[in-house]
Fold this protein.
Amino acid sequence: MPVLDILDLPAACPPDTAWMGLDLGEQTIGVAVSDTTRMIASPLELIRKSKFTLEAQTLFKLMDARKISGLVIGLPVNMDGTEGPRAQSCRAFARNLERHRPVNVAFWDERLSTSAVERFLIDELDLSRKRRAGVVDRTAAAWILQGALDRVRDQASWV
């Protein structure tokens, strides 16, 4: 299944099913999920990167357990809109997932998501550096997924 535009993802997914958001870091994968109405994203889990096959198995187990119908993967686009090596790595991750199992995937521009989450965790929650380390990637995944959910909902209200 090809990568979808975020506005085409709802049509590819059964109604009343949740989506999963991923923040693909160098050492971890932040995972978030939406509710079945696709209104609210919540941080879920942090997967430590090791071997791709193990990461994929973990993601597929989470997807099956929660009946996830779509993935929104954060795409780290450069500030000038170009895609660098990290964005290409995210695209390769999606292609590799597809080789294991068909998945409805859309990318979401994640520019500044981690820094926005860091600011929130510091300014609003006053979390120490040590406590932030375990929360940032999961929360960034929720930030990415929430942005995509809001965009889809905003588009639907204009139609």
User: Anything to note?
Assistant: The mean pLDDT is 86.
